[in-house]
Amino acid sequence: MRFYCENLNPGKILLGPDEARHLVSVLRAQPGQEIELFDGRGTTAKARIIEIKKEKVLLNVELISHIPPRSPKVIIAASIAKGERFDWLIAKCVELGVDHICPVIFERTVKLGKESASDRYIRLAISAAKQSQNAYLPQIDPPTMFSDALLNLKSRYPDAKIVFGCLDPNCPPVTAISDERSDVIAFIGPEGGLTTQEEEILKSTHASGVKLTATILRIETAAIAFASVLCIARDNS
Question: Is the whole-model pTM more than 0.90?
């Protein structure tokens, strides 16, 4: 059993309310059982349940280890999609090992409500990390306008290669860049496509258009295609 704990230190700790509720109400855990914890920043631990009171779980952290961070970084900057589609994108990117997810608002992005989904995205990421044994949670940005997202990501990853999905048959395939050992920022436009101005802005930063498949992909499919190629190449090099 694997659970998320934001702060891991040796000794006695209380499990967070959501995780404690799942441990007690769903899994019917008992004192004395051993569980695994992770903090989403590479630290994992073996812990034993000391006491359960209603939905409060007291643990004793017995063994802590650390998994080195992945390199290079894979950053997915994808247009927001309606409904559960972006939720699915978040979960699958976490399973694959994406390091940073930036929901982007392009000119043709479908307008969404004002309610923020940030808390839901974090819960989805934690659930996907637990299931996939991923020791790292990605940074998940709030929805950001395209120009600001590009500026912010270039500032954070100054040496990264920037790519974007391209339908031009003369564009190189994404596999042509998957063997490079630099961070990669992949921009995925909305289903209406990038505007000419947005493409020109990307090209002005030396971004490259790359092909994924011969078919037109939805936002979440394109994001997973990028993540799959880039993460598999990184993790098996």
Answer: yes
